[in-house]
Each structure stands twice: as C-alpha cells, then as structure tokens.
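Lab meeting minutes (informal)
Scribe: AK
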Amino acid sequence: MLIVLQSAGAPLTPSLEDYIRRRINFSLARFSNEVRKIKVRVSDTAGAGGSYVKRCLIKVSLKNNADVTIEDVQDKAVLAVDRAAHRAKKTLLRRLTQRRRKNRFQGSRFSHSAA
C-alpha cells in the first residue's frame, strides 16, 4: 500500500508527515490487499472571516473498483487528517462489503448443478 503525501500552501513538517502515515496505516491497513495507492493532500484554504483552515483530501485508488475520494476541512491539520481517515475507512468498508455481497449473489446463481 503506497502512501503519497502532498502539501499546498503549508509545508509538511516531518512530525506531521509521520503522523499522517501512522494515521492512514492505522485506519486503512486492513484494506491493504484491495488498495493500490493512497494520496493524501493537506492544504491551506481560505475560511470564513478571512482566516485559513486546513483541508485534507484523501484519494484511495483501489485495485478492482472505482477510486474513493474523501475531503475534510478543520482548524488544524491533525483534525482534518483524523476525520478524513476515519471517513475513508467507513467508506471503504461499505464499498468493499457491497462488492463482496454482489459477487456472492452473482456466483450463487451459477453454482447449482442441474440434476
């Protein structure tokens, strides 16, 4: 599972990079057989009242499915990463469970032998 980190508007400190990698691994490691690449982009975005907020965009490229993109905006980068990683985990679990159910039902139609 390849994790690619990007930053726009604010530099990624080594401690933030380490935190993002640990958080993504913690949330998404169970899907490592299904995932090709995870791209995490942290950026500054203009918020309400002229202040800047942190935006975290996570794009998960799956091996046999459409990509999953999650975005979250918070006051702090760590909070944005936490929420986006949690939402990515829930979304992947839901999508992969649906795919397994669909495959199971499709396979069961043809597995009966005619007697």
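Next up, CB showed the second protein from the same session:
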Amino acid sequence: MFPAKRPRLGMAEDGRPTLQEELLALRGEVEPVSSRRGSQPRSEGGGGTVTYRPTYRAILAKNNYLVRKTLGNGSYSKVKLAISLSRNKEYVAIKIVDRWVRRNRAPSDFQTKFLPRELDVWPRLRHTNIVRVLDTFDDGRRVYMILDYQENGDVLRYIQKVGALNEPLAQSWTWQVCDACRYLHDQNITHRDLKLENLLLDRNFHIKICDFGFVKGDCLADLSRTYCGSKSYAAPEILLGEPYDPKKADSWAIGVILYIFITGKMPFDESRGNAGVLEEQRRLEFPWRKYKKVTPDERDLVLRLFTYDFRMRPDIHAVLATPWMKQAARTDMSDLRDLAMEGYRHRKEREKEKEREREREKEKQAEKGVYGGSGRGTGGRTHSM
C-alpha cells in the first residue's frame, strides 16, 4: 500500500491555498507504521512491506481542524494551536494524548486511571476560570481534547517576564484561582496539580485553570494515596509519602502560587532534596524584609496556607473568607488587562534603567582609562620630562 497523494492545491487571490484547500489536502496525509520483511532481496524489489496510517493532522483535518503550530509538550501529550473551520474559523487549542510514545506504551495507571478521569471530569466542568473542553474524540491510538484557546499564555511565562505582581493583580488572580477551586471542591473534585504552568490567561488576562491529568473525584471517601503533581508545589504530607487530604493539598499549592505572585520567587529550595524542603516548610523563614511591597495581608495568607499540619490548614472556604479575599470579591475585575499590561510597561522601564546604568558604568570605566596612572595633581595624567 502506498501513501495517498495529497490533492493539488488551488490558490487564493494572494497565491496561497485557501483554508478549505489546506484542510482537504491534509486529510490524505499518512505516516509509516511498520515494515514486514519480504521474501525477495532488496535489490530485486524486496526489503519489506510498509503500512501507513493517517497522521494526527489528517485525523484533525477530517474533523475540520487545521493545525497551525505547537503550543506545548508533555510526557504523553502535546498541545497544538488549530483553526476550527466548523466554528467560524476560531482558534482552538487541541490536547493530543498519545497512548504510545517512542514505541513505549504509556504506563498502565496513566491509561486506566488518570486519562479516563480527565476525560470524565474535565468536559463536565463549567466555571468562568476553568478552561472549557469543547469536544473530545479518539482514533484508537490518540485522544483529542478540543479546548478554548487562551491567547496570553500561562502565568509562569508572564511572571518570568515581569517579576512580582502588583497587589491588585495578585489579589484578583488569587481570588480567581480560589473561586475555581471552591467550585471543584464543592463537587468533591480536586485538581492535585495546581501550578503556574496550569494557569492560563485569556485575552483579558483572566485566569483559566487547565490540565486535569491528576484530577480526583469523590474526595469524601478516604485520604488519597496517589502521590502526583509537581514537587515544588507539594505539601509536606505528600513529600513524606503519607496519606493526604487532596483538598488541603490544593490549598498548600495555592499558597505556593500566592508566594510567587507577590515575590516573583519560589518559596522553597528544591535542590536541597525532600529533607531540606521539609525543614524549610516547618520553619517558614522567608526574607520578607527583602520584599518591601508585600503587604501584611498577603504575608499572613501565605503563612496560613503553609500550615504544616494539613488538619489545621484552612480549606478553600476559609481562604475565601479572609478579609483580603473578601476585598477581592468586591473588586471590579474588568481592568485586569490594564493591570497586566502595566506589569509589561514597568518591565520595560526597568530594562531601560538597567541599560542606563550599564552606560554610566562604561563611562566611568572609560574615564578611569583616560585619567588612570600614577601622576598626581593633574587629574591622574602623567607627563614625561
């Protein structure tokens, strides 16, 4: 069997194929699957029979999605940006989960537990601060999740660019994360992988939680014994390998997120290993004097969320009941875009100031070069007699 040839593309007025023509062409795209050795020598036309299957682009094209670029990659998944021709040519994000990666089968617990949970829970969620799943389908090898596209990337990249947030933005984003968690926890659902990379920003810079690969439902039953998520955001009980309350583990992760919001730094030094991190989690000795813009309300909420004993740690309702969060709930959040853009402007101002400092330093070094030497009384110049 030979791969089907792509149809010849017609051209739009600007000389490029139309979106519909690109879509039709991609529907015939295939990739080799395996080869079976034939009985004839390669020199006589033997050497094996190659079989083909549709590429992921072809599968998506048959469902009216035209892939444009890669947005991200994970261990068993990748996220693509695509145009949906059945949704008025809107951009969508497509999470593609591959059950087979580099000839290795994805772990059985991933296929039998985590992936089915994500497909069961995420599409049912409806909250303004949670990424919406528009559709899902399966081609036998891959699972496709069609998601609302969030054009401003994730919060990690934003903070890497601008540093610590101003208080109004930190307060509003923290409230949005907490309110989405309240929605989940009220249904006995926990995320278990809250981190900056899983907080996306829509066109108006509102938070959208994504990636429910470690989601857990029915949290009323027993303590959880599945140790998942990112170590940087993990609560002490998880690092200790003890049974844990996943709702309180979400609370701890929110504490890490808030700390990064207000300082631009990670709270704990992961390079010290589990024992070193656990010691830091017990002591909670943060350099607050260094972060002069951090307010007492911000600091107090961080310390409450970092309660070592999860039984004493506040749940999401207690967090939302704090004065700082109540104030956020009363805030008009229609100006979050302006607040976020202000962060970019401040970053540019800081870069300009650093450049001016570098120029001043160069001028000082140049002056030392001109006036340096052992002569005295003449600005450092030396004269030969």
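CB comment: The first strand starts at residue 30 and ends at 36.
No objections, moving on.
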